[in-house]
Amino acid sequence: MSDLLAGLGAWFHAVFVAQFDLWIAIGFAAQAMFTARFLVQWIASERAGRSVVPIAFWFFSIAGGAILFVYALSRQDPVFIAGQGTGLLIYARNLWLIFRERRSALANAPTI
Hints:
By secondary structure, the protein is mostly helical. It has one domain (20-108). The chain has helices at residues 2-18, 22-48, 55-75, 78-108.
């Protein structure tokens, strides 16, 4: 058991401590932004009593996704690059649709 714990401790140190640098810090910051979008969505849904996707979800998605994309580029990870790149397109499209709908609603709103 002590060998298992020692091995686990060595692995943890190699992965989380020894290789820590600015890019790892950027990656963790991006992951925190990405996680924040789920917290925003969850809180909005709980308040509404139904599933809601607030606009802040998409802004956190863009911010976290863009930083993770840059991080993936620095790591030269093709799977991560393709995944985050595709996600960015989807997040941007959702924001475009939201703003287009709002523009249309403003244009069609009755004037007083």
